[in-house]
Structures are given as C-alpha cells and as structure tokens.
C-alpha cells in the first residue's frame, strides 16, 4: 500500500496532521469501556512520521496529565520534543482541554461562576505557553462544554459577552508574551452539550467581527460538525476562505442525522469530500491552493486494535491524495472546462458596479427575460461528469 512508486503515498509536503487525541483515541464510548491501550505520544509521533504525516497537534492534557507538577511537565515536554526532533515532526496547532474535568460541567469561559472562568483562562494561558514552546502557530478554541441543556439558565446576552471578554483577554495575553498565535474558533451544534453556543462556522464568523483583535482570530470548521447541523460544509469553508478567515480545518466524515461519529476522512459522503479537496487545493485554477494544515480530527472504529488505528491514519491521508488527483483530473477535463467557461459579456459586466450612470444604463439595457430563462445550465451533465471521475471511469 505504501510502496515508493505509489503517487498517493503521503509526504510531509502534503501538510497532513493528526491530533494526539485522534489516533490516541482508546475507543471509549457512552456504552463501553476503552478497547485499546493508550498509545504513548512519543510512539504516535514515530508512527505518524513513518506514515508520511507532517506533524501532530494536541490539547494540553493529551501530553501533560491534569495536575502534573512543574518537574513532571518539563520531563514530559523534553521527552516529547526529542521524539519530534528525532522524526522531523512539527506541532502546528495546540488547544486546551476545557471539557474533561468536572469543574467544566456547565462551561468554562462562559460558566456562571467567575472562579470557573478564572480557572479556565489560567488553564488556557498555561496551555498557550506550552504551545508556544512547541512552536505551534495556530491556537484552537473549541467550546465543547460552552452550552446548555436548560436554556432558562443563561441569556445569550450574558454568555456572548463572557466569551468575547475571554478571547479579548487571551489575544492580549498572546501579544504581551510575544507569541505569534492565530486563534481558530471551532463551532459545533451539539455533543457533549444538548446545545453548544455558536452552533456553526457562520455564527463564529460574525462573532469574530466583534472582537478587539479581530485580525488575530479566524475559524476551524469541521466536516462532522457542519454535517451534524445539516449544513453544506463546502459552502461554509468557502465563506471562511472568502473572508480570509480559514485558519485551520478539521477533516473527518459523518453520516447526517447520526451521533458525532468522527469517521475516517472520505469514508462517508465521498462527493462532499471530493468538492472539499477540490476547493482547498484550488484545483479549478480560479483561486490559489489554501496553505494551511490538512488536520484529521477523526478516530478509528471501536472494532480496531492498534494496527487498525494506523490503517485508519494512512487511509485518511491516502484518500485525500487520491481525491486531489481526481479533482485535478476533473478540472482538466475539456468537457468540464467547456461547461464551466465563464460567460463574459464585455458590454454588460462593467455596468454591474454601482454608479448613477450605470444605474441609468441598466434601466436602458435590453434584456429578453424569456429568452434567458430558456437557457439550460448543463448542471446534470456537469454533475454526472463529476460522478464518473469519482467512479474512475473518466480522467
Ligand atoms: C469534538 C471536537 C474536538 C476538537 C478538539 C480541538 O467534536 O470533540 O471536534 O475534537 O476539535 O478539542 O479543539
Ligand atoms: Mn468533532
Ligand atoms: Mn474538531
């Protein structure tokens, strides 16, 4: 599967990353105990390097147990850095676990008790120090427990300013320390809370415009999360790209209408995965390739042993690379190019920018609405071409 002649075999240049918590997931679920041993972070680094990944990302407590002493912390970090150096692996992104400890049962940065919020802020600061030490450039905020079951408990006009103040605080902290973090906010509609605040990437994009250091903050959309909300992931990522706010991305797969599955990338909704890869890789040639990390936030099925975990990791990357080739083939197909060729009307296009004169000119323009309405868009043919490329009978 990974012979050197295999053009789909991942390399560090593909910029693939995994969370320590993803391949390290022991298969615990609400109904059952872990099915796998915890894989030590240093072995995760070695195995992912062997498979061709660029780096690993982590929550503070994926590496350093909650409550560890300063001496333990330093020993663990030294050992981890050595593994990174030995295997040429990077840590491009770090984040904070603000959901496992029971103190966060009703939220962290939006909790009612200011002492809980203080504890959360302090934990994020320490985790940012760790991230900076490991060379991370992106800092992710996923508000896993920021939410509610009983909505009578908090009005949005209370929790929204709390979250804003927290992010303003942490932006200032990052600047004061001389860190170069870019913050990436990750939305999710539900799980573990009945409802999580800022349910979608769109909610986050607006919220960011209200922050003091708006320029430091972008989004980290996740395939499964937007699917849980029944939304079109490619549209949402596209909006983030257009706003220049796509700072990070969480790739996985999800069946619509199910619990939060975190499946291997491309294992469900292959067409959605194809369109996403096409967008990120700039395959259509209309826009450049997105330069960020291709991060997989997924885990192996609970049926698997450790060998299955590495199959899972290799599969995520290999599928991405296959889809990249498929996207290139699709966009190079003359039949596709013909359909997608832009309609350029040198007379009309310049009139679509507002000026008083242009508004007048539009009024005077001759447009035969009935004739225009009769023009078919060839989308049936276009989509069938896409499906045929995906099925491997074309391109
Ligand atoms: C989830 C989330 C998390 C976050 C992670 C990084 O559904 O559990 O996707 O995996 O991405 O905590 O912030
Ligand atoms: Mn998730
Ligand atoms: Mn995620």
Question: Any overview of this molecule?
Answer:
With about 400 residues, this protein is an alpha/beta fold. It has 2 domains: about 325 residues, TIM Barrel; about 55 residues, no CATH class. It has 15 helices and 10 strands. Strands 8-6-4-3-2-1-10-9 form an 8-stranded parallel β-sheet. Strands 5-7 form a two-stranded antiparallel ribbon. The radius of gyration is 23 Å and the shape is globular. The mean pLDDT is about 95.
Please summarize what this structure is.
With 395 residues, the chain is α/β, with parallel strands linked by helices.
Distinctive features:
binds D-gluconic acid; two-stranded antiparallel sheet; eight-stranded parallel β-sheet; 15 helices; 395 residues
CATH architecture descriptor of the largest domain = Alpha-Beta Barrel
Main sheet specs? 8 strands, parallel
Number of domains: 2
Low-confidence stretches are none
Helix and strand composition category: alpha/beta
Distance between the termini: 22 Å
CATH superfamily of the largest domain: Divalent-metal-dependent TIM barrel enzymes
Number of strands: 10
Overall pLDDT, averaged?
97
Bound ligand species: D-gluconic acid, manganese (II) ion
What is the CATH T-level topology of the largest domain? TIM Barrel
Shape: globular
The level of helicity is 40-55%
């Amino acid at each position: 599967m990974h012979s050197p002649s295999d053009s789909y075999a991942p390399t560090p240049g593909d910029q693939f990353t995994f969370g320590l918590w993803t391949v390290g997931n022991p298969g615990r679920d609400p109904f059952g105990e872990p099915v796998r041993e915890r894989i030590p972070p240093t072995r995760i680094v070695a195995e992912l390097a062997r498979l061709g990944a660029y780096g690993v990302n982590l929550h503070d407590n994926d590496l350093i147990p909650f409550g560890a002493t300063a001496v333990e912390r330093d020993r663990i970090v030294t050992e981890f850095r050595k593994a990174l150096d030995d295997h040429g692996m990077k840590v491009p992104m770090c984040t904070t676990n603000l959901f496992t400890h029971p103190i966060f049962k009703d939220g962290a940065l939006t909790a009612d008790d200011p002492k809980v919020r203080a504890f959360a802020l302090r934990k994020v600061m320490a985790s940012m120090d760790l991230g900076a030490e490991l060379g991370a450039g992106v800092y992710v905020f996923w508000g896993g427990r920021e939410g509610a079951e009983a909505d009578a408990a908090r009005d949005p006009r209370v929790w929204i300013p709390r979250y804003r103040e927290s992010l303003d605080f942490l932006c200032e902290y990052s600047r004061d320390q001389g860190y170069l973090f870019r913050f990436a906010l990750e939305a999710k509609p539900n799980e573990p809370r009945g409802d999580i605040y800022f349910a979608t990437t769109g909610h986050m994009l607006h919220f960011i415009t209200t922050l003091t250091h708006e320029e430091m903050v972008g989004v980290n959309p996740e395939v499964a999360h937007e699917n849980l909300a029944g939304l079109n992931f490619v549209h949402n990522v596209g909006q983030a790209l257009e706003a220049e706010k796509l700072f990070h991305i969480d790739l996985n797969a999800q069946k619509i209408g199910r619990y939060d599955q975190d499946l291997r990338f491309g294992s469900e909704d292959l067409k959605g995965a194809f369109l996403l890869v096409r967008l990120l890789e700039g395959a259509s040639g209309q826009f450049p390739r997105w330069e960020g990390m291709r991060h997989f936030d997924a885990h192996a099925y609970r049926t698997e042993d450790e060998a299955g975990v590495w199959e899972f990791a290799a599969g995520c990357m290999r599928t991405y690379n296959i889809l990249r080739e498929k996207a290139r083939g699709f966009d190079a197909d003359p039949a596709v190019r013909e359909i997608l060729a832009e309609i350029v009307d040198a007379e009309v296009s310049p009139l679509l920018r507002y000026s008083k004169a242009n508004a007048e000119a539009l009024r005077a323009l001759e447009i035969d609405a009935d004739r225009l309405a009769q023009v078919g868009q060839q989308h049936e043919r276009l989509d069938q071409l896409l499906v045929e490329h995906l099925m491997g009978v074309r391109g």
